[in-house]
Write a structure and sequence with these properties.
Blueprint (H helix, E strand, L loop, with lengths): L1 H9 L4 H7 L9 H4 L19 H4 L2 E2 L5 E5 L15 E7 L2 E7 L3 E6 L4 E6 L5 H22 L2 E8 L4 E5 L14 E5 L6 E4 L4 E7 L2 E6 L2 H12 L11 E4 L13
């Protein structure tokens, strides 16, 4: 009998019973906070309504010496696929040619009077379309700037004895294409560091501690700059390393034993 009474006393009280047990009654405005939510009620993390992409909706100014041409995807005879092949925008300028692939849900238009290009999507509420909307617009703007003015990356070698040169041939690396140049680095290692310049990128050394990279493809230029920087990542105690563009580092205090 005592065991059964003990088990009853250990059971959790319901909401109606807890209201009776409390010595001080709850106020009316606190009661909804203690009531359980129905199972069908779902609450999203963000209550704000989806908005259009600010980057994707922005227009792109096209210089007079740059031509854009929309190419239809090639037709494949006898091949049936569920996916629609992407369209291609060909960009031609004084420095070269480039191309951007458009997803099937992205539309392209250009105003010849004002020479401004714009992109739009089928459904602005779809998350994947909003994401690719801004990404595609950034790719197109970068390629337009690349074929008209070009992209650059300046690397600064900070350290005692750090030097860089551009050589037409290398000892430790084989050329990937005809006429490839190589960036030779002296960064305190016991072996030479030779990196092949990618196709479409021009490398020069205006100073022994400066490397200038130029090209029409921003992604290729920055990727090659990151490869060079990887050999001496800036360290926070002496401030030595390879810095790209306006990169800085905050120095830390030295550990005193």
């Amino acid at each position: 009998m005592k065991a059964s009474m003990a088990t009853k006393s250990c059971r959790p009280l319901r909401f109606s019973q807890s209201l009776r047990v409390t010595s001080t009654p709850l106020h009316d405005f606190l009661i909804p906070a203690f009531q359980p939510l129905p199972a069908s009620t779902t609450r999203s993390f963000s209550q704000s309504a989806p908005r259009a992409s600010r980057v994707g909706a922005a227009t792109i100014a096209v210089p007079p010496d740059v031509n854009l041409r929309l190419l239809d995807p090639p037709k494949r005879r006898g091949i049936i696929t569920r996916f629609e092949p992407p369209k291609i925008i060909e960009i031609e300028g004084p420095l070269g040619k480039a191309s951007v692939q458009l997803p099937p849900f992205v539309s392209y238009a250009i105003d010849k009077a004002t020479r401004k290009a714009s992109l739009s999507v089928l459904d602005r509420k779809a998350r994947d379309q909003r994401e690719m909307w801004g990404t595609t617009r950034s790719y197109l703007a970068n390629h337009i700037l690349g074929v008209s003015e070009g992209h650059t990356a300046i690397l600064r070698l900070v350290g005692v004895g750090y030097r860089a040169t551009v050589e037409p041939a290398a000892i430790t690396v084989k050329p990937e294409y005809s006429g490839q140049h190589f960036v030779s680095l002296k960064l305190g290692y016991s072996h030479p560091i030779e990196l092949g310049v990618p196709m479409g990128v021009k490398a020069s050394t205006p100073l022994p501690t400066r490397i200038l990279l130029e090209g029409i493809d921003k992604e290729v230029v920055n990727s090659f700059a990151a490869r060079i920087r990887r050999w001496r990542v800036p360290e926070p105690y002496k401030g030595k390393g390879i810095f790209v563009n306006e990169e800085t580092i905050k120095l830390k205090a030295k550990k005193i034993k």
